[in-house]
Design brief:
nine-stranded mixed sheet, Rossmann fold, 3 domains, two-stranded antiparallel ribbon, 616 residues, alpha/beta, 15 strands
Length: 616
């Protein structure tokens, strides 16, 4: 029996010695490579676990098998070899163990450390896979997966890269029966029915060079071509708006009247402040101009006395500033009319307001009755010119109402930079003017502008509220301060977004993170036009509001026009432009009550080009 065991032991050692070089080490290297690649745990996954992939179950099985084989090759086989040596020659067992150690060491060196290399290579591959490949694959899968909800909350970093201005010719979209404002984000036309347009005041809010003048030009161009009475009060002044009106009048054979209220008087017309309208209207403008209305302060006592004098001496027939000043400076009333006289003297220092015999003067009644087009050049800096402009606007509103039965067209009155010119009369007109077949378009820079008037006697908060309440069509361009951006957001209403509130990541054995498959989606209420959008709108892009409709992002573009610079004097031999014109030129002819522009628009090489915002 012992001999048989000894023979089996000898045969076993012979097979091991023949097989071990090099396959024993190769087997160990493969086992360690697998363990280095997929790790040593977990080795078992309960069958009832549902959220486990087949790949994870296969990896667990390989780990278990590899660990068992490692025990077999790393512990059991050396133990069997040592036992076989002891069975063969127990007395020489220490020498056998020493030879066994030499055998294993020489075999390990002969294969250049295959087991360690196998483990290191497997571990290195696992590191590269875990820290480089897996995160990128996870991110790509998260990016391109088909989501149940793709909503995201507004991010200012994303909004700044979002919208870009669009260039197009607005004239291509003009239609009968409606007014074109611009395009939306999908290049769909945004229009307002003409009947609705006539009864809804408009206001455009935005800083300088954001695009208010662009849409004003589009509206002026359409209104002139649709044969409305169009009046544009331009305090800047803006050669683009004037050129739009001139071109539209030339192409439709309509009459353009131009008035300059500034002292240089680049147009030949003058304006007689208190010559137009009914007696009560003219007297009311004098009282408003001199700020003699009751305010509830101590000065009302003196104002009442001066108003009483004005009621006594103010003539029933139209009167010039000089003649009125002469009446108020007569000896018997001079002591009571100091305020009025001081205001009249200031006005007479402006050449365009000092009307004398033979001067051509503006007749607003004729403008309204004859359905003409009027351009008024004003100022933002000259306080006297601004006063005259507010009186002209007041007369326009009064005459529009008084002459309703005598007019045969709708009146479209556009006032740029209204914050410098706003009065209670204009604010009140917003509530009543549409009943007289007329409406206003007001432009200013921010919502706070209407709250900061210089006259402390006026309730500017109430005026601002009336403007916002009665102007039904609103267009906001880029907001430079958060208050205006928040107003835009509040006006746009809210929407409910299904956004990801939480999505977990798992950390692997090499400290890599990968997105897990589950997301927590929650409904979050957010402004339809977020303040981030309001503060990052590019030039010529605004947010358009009209009653009963959702706010829309509106893209506006220039009306192609050749710029006719102001001033334009009657004696000018030709009109200069950014590109040299051929010999045929429009000309100016002075008429009793208008500067009439006649002649065809000269052809230009190629198509007409719109000015850039800088040229504006």
């Amino acid at each position: 029996m012992n001999d048989w065991i000894a023979r089996v032991a000898v045969r076993f050692l012979e097979l091991v010695q023949a097989w071990a070089d090099p396959w024993y080490w190769v087997a160990l290297a493969i086992i360690l490579f697998i363990l280095g690649l997929i790790g040593a745990s977990p080795t078992q996954i309960p069958q009832h676990e549902k959220d486990v992939t087949q790949t994870a179950r296969l990896a667990a099985y390989l780990r278990l098998v590899s660990l068992k084989l490692l025990v077999v090759f790393g512990l059991l086989m050396p133990a069997l070899i040592a036992g076989a040596g002891y069975v063969i020659n127990p007395s020489n067992f220490p020498a056998f163990i020493a030879n066994m150690q030499i055998f294993f060491w020489e075999g390990f060196v002969a294969v250049l450390g295959f087991p360690l290399i196998g483990y290191a290579f497997g571990w290195l591959l696992s590191v590269v896979h875990a820290r480089v490949i897996t995160p990128k694959v996870s991110a790509l899968k998260r990016r391109f997966r088909v989501r149940q909800s793709g909503d995201e909350l507004s991010d200012i970093r994303v909004e700044t890269r979002g919208k870009q201005a669009k260039n197009f010719d607005p004239r291509r979209y003009y239609q009968e029966g409606n007014f074109f404002f611009g395009l939306d984000e999908h290049d769909t036309e945004i229009r307002v029915d003409e009947a609705t347009w006539k009864v809804q005041h408009q206001r455009y809010i935005g800083p300088t060079q954001t695009g208010k003048g662009v849409l004003i030009g589009v509206q002026l161009d359409q209104a002139i071509r649709k044969n409305h009475t169009v009046i544009f009060i331009d305090p800047k002044p803006d050669p683009y708006g004037f050129s739009i009106m001139k071109q539209a009048c030339l192409e439709t054979n309509r009459e353009l009247v131009a008035l300059d209220l500034n002292d240089e008087q680049v147009f030949p017309l003058k304006y007689d402040l208190f010559a137009g309208g009914s007696y009560r209207d003219r007297l009311g403008r004098v009282i408003a101009c001199a700020k003699l209305a009751s305010t509830g302060q101590e000065s009302d006592y003196y104002h009442r006395k001066e108003r009483a004098v004005l009621n006594d001496v103010f003539p029933k027939e139209p009167i010039t500033l000089r003649a009125l000043l002469g009446l108020l400076e007569e000896e018997e009333v001079r002591e009571k009319t100091g305020t009025s006289c001081a205001v009249l003297r200031e006005l007479l220092h402006v050449q365009s307001l000092d009307v004398q015999g033979g001067d051509d003067t503006l007749n607003l009644a004729t403008i309204l009755r004859d359905n003409q087009v009027l351009y008024i050049r004003s100022s933002l800096h000259d306080a006297v010119v601004k006063t005259a402009t507010t009186m002209l606007i007041t007369e326009l509103i009064q005459e529009t109402m008084r002459l309703k039965a005598e007019r045969n067209s709708h009146v479209f009155l556009v006032i740029d930079e209204i914050a410098f010119l706003i009065t209670e009369t204009i604010a009140d007109a917003l509530a009543t003017l549409t009943s007289f077949d007329a409406h206003l378009c007001l432009a200013y820079q921010s919502e706070g502008d209407l709250l900061n008037g210089h006259d402390t006697k006026i309730n500017w908060k109430a005026i601002a509220q009336r403007v916002k309440t009665n102007a039904k069509i609103h267009l906001y361009y880029r907001a430079e301060e958060f208050d205006t951006a928040q107003i835009m957001a509040d006006k746009s209403g809210t929407q409910v977004k299904a956004v990801t509130r939480a999505q977990r990541v798992s950390t692997g054995r090499h400290l890599e993170e990968t997105w897990e498959g589950n997301r927590d989606i929650h409904g979050v209420e957010e402004a339809f036009i977020h303040p981030n959008v309001a503060m990052t709108l590019p030039e010529r892009v605004g947010v358009f509001f009209q009653p009963t409709q959702t706010a829309q992002v509106l893209y506006t573009s220039w009306v192609p026009v050749e710029i006719y610079p102001t001033p334009i004097l009657p004696a000018a031999p030709h009109v200069q432009s950014f590109t040299e014109l051929p010999t045929a030129q429009p000309s100016l002819q002075a008429t009793p009550h208008a500067v009439k522009i006649s002649g065809g628009l000269s052809p230009l090489p190629g198509s007409l080009t719109a000015p850039s915002p800088n040229e504006k």
